[in-house]
Amino acid sequence: MLKNGGNQIKLFKKSGNGKSNILDLRGTYKGGGGPDKTILQSAVRHDPDKLNVLVAYLRQPGDNEFQIEEMAKSLGVNYVDFFDGRLLDLLCLWNLQKLIRKEKIRLVHSHDDKTLLYGVLLKCFVPRLQIMYTCHSHSDYRKESFSTFVDFLKYRLRKKIQLGLMGCYAKPILTISENTKKRLVDGGLQPDKVAVLYNGIDVDYWCRSKAQPVLRKELKLADNHFLIGTVARITYDKDFPTFLEVAHRVALKIPNVKFVIVGDGYGDELEKLKKEAEKQGLESVVFFTGHRSDLLNVYASFNLFLLTSLTEGLPNTILEAMAMEVPVVSTNVGGVPELIVPNITGGLCSVGDVQSLTDVVSNLLLQPDERMKMAKSGRKRVEECFNFVERVRILEDYYLSFLGSGELDSVSEGS
Q1: Most CB atoms closer than 10 Å: which of 16, 104, 260, 272?
Q2: How would you label 159-184 residue by residue, b for 16+ Cβ within 10 Å and e otherwise?
Q3: What is the model's pTM?
Q4: Is the peptide bond before 172 cis (omega within 30 degrees of 0)?
Q5: Could you count the other beta carbons within 10 Å of the beta carbon of residue 83?
């Protein structure tokens, strides 16, 4: 056990051949998201003959629904977490540097804004430490997206700080899409200092034959009912007002269609969204499940996957849907067009274009043969282009290179 502010923090050790020398550092809330799945699954698959990986998470003290610990334990991941309750939690930092010294960590891999900052500060504590960063998303909003100009200025300042902190990290900075790389380069990073390492997915796990459409039974849907779903954190970025309007319009055209939103927010966002759906008279059209961990069965319940986001990195949810042979309709944002081939594996529409989203969704529902072709094509694309095993191999090459014991010759741009 490690102690953090009087709380017992469990460290799950898996059999290895020495001390961990890589610290995968991430902060998240409740059940986490796409990056969390990637981090935990990567830790399971790293070659123990080359390196040992310890996964560390920052968790908010009041987060009673935090699930990463149990996920790590079920996977047998070498894992520890620390309470982090402030913008700059000095006790958390102190405990992290003690862990780094105790476990003889040589490299810290950060994944989000908070750990981007903490990685730089940890290097001040331990100068010999190498630090690397993966940028999973770098938003690009205009001032019209903010209620006040002051909020817009705060957002711009935050982006400047992010880019400044990235300058302290080993190069290249990793990103998960060409679009995210472009945003970083537009922000001032040199193109040769940023590299793309696409998200990957375990196609043996994400397989429709292993799942049951339990959500359809829970919602008491008849066989002739269509179910359109999304799996997402309930945040501003996901543009759920557009999702609700699309649901309203599609339901007017196709009465036997239902929609479901799978996910939760950071606070009371779920309850607010439920009330908004009721206000619009959609309580019999749009359903809410909250957070679910049985996502194989969730995806297997969908006829279509719908994403209405304002911004994205490279969404794992789209990869999961495609692997589960669910056609995807999405807004054309971030790295999404690097996943979806229009009219082959799904449909792409402009942000906020309710009519276009409605038309694409409606047309696909009425064309079962086209949906089937897209389902098969989506699965094939994931198998060929977003292989998780290959991603882990390339990430190991980066680790070894940053540690001075490997080369990056086998890593190609945009891998």
Answers
A1: 260
A2: beebbebbeebbbbbbbbbbbbbebb
A3: 0.81
A4: yes
A5: 19
pLDDT (tens digit per residue) in 350-395:
999 999 999 999 999 999 999 999 999 999 999 999 988 889 999 9
Strands (E), 272-390: 286-290, 304-307, 328-331, 346-349
pLDDT digits (tens, 9 = 90+) for 146-178: 889 998 999 889 999 999 999 999 999 999 999
Q: Please name the residue that has the structure tokens 């089937």.
A: 372
Adjacent-strand bridge partners of 134: 174
Sheet strand arrangement including 194-196: 79-83, 53-59, 22-27, 107-110, 130-135, 173-175, 194-196
The answer to whether 411 and 398 are in contact (CB under 8 A) is yes
Beta-bridge partner residues of 104: none
Return the axis-axis angle of helices 368-385 and 316-323, rounded to nearest 10°.
120
Q: What are phi and psi of 209, to 5 degrees?
A: -65, -15
- Per-residue pLDDT reduced to its tens digit, 193-212: 999 999 888 898 899 999 99
| Separation between Cα atoms, residue 382 and residue 202, nearest integer Å | 9
Residue 268 CB neighbour total at 10 angstroms: 10
Strand partners of residue 83: 59
Inter-helix orientation angle 68-75/34-45, to 10°:
20
Query: Cα separation of 263 and 317, whole Å?
Result: 12
Q: Which residues pair with 133 in a beta bridge?
A: 110
Q: What is the CB neighbour count within 10 angstroms for residue 281?
A: 9
